[in-house]
Design a protein that fits this description.
Sc_DH/Rdtase_CS, Rossmann fold, SDR_fam, globular
Length: about 260
């Protein structure tokens, strides 16, 4: 099968308005797969959809959704019920760079809602549909900070640890039904994530490199670490005790933190 035959004719991409989600959507459109673009910013999604239609001649559907809301995943599934979805790319997520005692509880709970709750719900909802068709794929996004706790990103790192463990667990379960599951664990990525998290992303990996690495690994691996920086950090930290890895990455995050306040 070609990529489009295995993972098309429709793909759902969350976080499609920026960063890795947008880069992945562009690559999927270039392969001829129709797209359901999901993010909060409706007008921006409409502009992106119009560009992809003009360049690649695909079909699109735009869904504005705040995935921090528990019911948003059900809304996305219902809005795509009649489409033959072969791929779910769950790229929506956000982080923070404040110490946990300094962060707002509402913000931390929203982060868990998007990074964990929505990922779990959407995986179950679209995974069931993929099992019925006996083929397709699910792409989840962890992070190299998910290998251990990280001061300054305690909640974010914990959500990514969940995604990594979750993906590893369901990979063989879905494989038994012909469905590929991949966890992408990048290092720092130059996207809107940095601005929201209050981090300086100079020198970070480009989103399109992460997206290309993810789509190349889908169906071949359970986890991929795209980008040289992520590979180097992971390889160099792996032999160290977990507490030392936490301390080192805490210093890395502190060094990336913008001096201005995080909002």
């Amino acid at each position: 099968m070609t990529f489009a035959e295995r993972y098309g004719p429709w793909a759902v991409v969350t976080g499609a308005s920026d960063g890795i989600g947008l880069a992945t959507a562009k690559l999927l459109a270039a392969s001829g797969i129709n797209l359901v673009l999901v993010a909060r910013r409706y007008e921006l999604l409409r502009q992106i959809a119009a560009e992809l239609i003009a360049v690649h001649g695909i079909q699109t559907r735009v869904i504005s959704a705040d995935l921090a809301r528990a019911e948003a995943a059900d809304d996305v599934s219902a809005a795509t019920q009649e489409l033959d979805v072969g791929l779910a790319v769950l790229a929506a997520g956000f982080g923070d760079s404040r110490a946990f005692p300094d962060a707002t509880l509402a913000g931390e709970l929203d982060m868990i809602g998007v990074n964990v709750g929505a990922v779990t719900r959407l995986t179950h909802l679209f995974g069931g549909r993929l099992i019925e068709r006996r083929r397709g794929g699910i792409v989840l996004f962890g992070s190299i900070v998910g290998w251990q706790g990280v001061p300054g990103q305690a909640t974010y790192a914990a959500t990514k640890a969940y995604v990594q463990s979750f993906a590893e667990g369901i990979h063989p379960e879905y494989a038994a039904h012909g469905v590929d599951v991949l966890c992408v664990a990048p290092g720092p990525v130059n996207s809107g994530f940095g601005a929201r998290a209050g981090l300086n992303m100079d020198g970070a990996t480009a989103p399109d490199l992460v997206a290309r690495g993810a789509l190349r690994a889908l169906g071949r691996r359970a986890t991929v670490i795209p980008g040289a920086r992520g590979k180097v950090l992971t390889t160099s930290l792996r032999p160290l005790p977990r507490r030392i890895r936490s301390r080192v990455l805490g210093r890395v995050i502190a060094g990336m933190r913008d001096p201005g306040p995080v909002t």
